[in-house]
Amino acid sequence: MFAPTDDPSPFGLRQATHDDFVFAEALTRTNMGGYYERHHLIWRADLFLASWRESENFILEVDGEAIGVLRLTEEGDSLHIRDVQIAAGHRRHGAGTYLLETSHRWARERGLRETQLRVFVDNPAARLYLRMGYRLVGPRLAQLGAIRHMARPV
């Protein structure tokens, strides 16, 4: 289990509780809905629930308001970032960078060698990942080539 950060920031990060699941699924489904539709995928609430149960889940807050979700799993010597979701109206204010930097720090603290994630090819967040040192490592679990696997050393 990772400990939430104590770094001074406008953002607060806390471990998610069972009560946060509805928020997390709704935010993720809303944010990813357009990609699923464009790439002819079907949202599976049962798969999200299974993934939620296997992941370390965190809620990003500003002034006590939940604005985002971070979901992580440790896979071998990598920290897999399952989800970085930020609510509309709170994007482009550093929240995604904050979550990624926190994940990178946690990976280092755990002695892991890399962080990895997957992103839809048409998701603008891929530019952030590239700026933060992620590189394409080939398609993984890609459907119709819509998803790219990215990784970066810690």
Describe this structure in words.
It holds the Pfam family Acetyltransf_1. This is GNAT family N-acetyltransferase. Keywords: Acyltransferase, Transferase. With 154 residues, the chain is of the alpha+beta class. It is 32% helix and 32% strand. The chain is globular, with a radius of gyration of 15 Å.
Strand order of the largest sheet: 1-2-3-4-5-7-6
CATH superfamily of one domain: Gcn5-related N-acetyltransferase (GNAT)
Q: Could you state the order of secondary-structure elements as H and E?
A: EHHEEEHEHEE
Helical segment count: 4
CATH topological fold name of one domain: Aminopeptidase
**Low-confidence segments:** none
Class per helix and strand makeup: alpha+beta
Global Rg: 15 Å
CATH top level assignment of one domain:
Alpha Beta
The portion of residues assigned to helices is 25-40%
Tell me the total number of β-strands. Answer: 7
Question: How widely separated are the two ends?
Answer: 18 Å
CATH architecture of one domain: 3-Layer(aba) Sandwich
**Could you describe the largest sheet, including whether it forms a barrel?**
7 strands, mixed
> Overall 3D geometry?
globular
| Average of pLDDT | 91
Keywords: Acyltransferase, Transferase
Pfam families: Acetyltransf_1
Organism: Trinickia fusca
GO molecular function, one term: acyltransferase activity, transferring groups other than amino-acyl groups
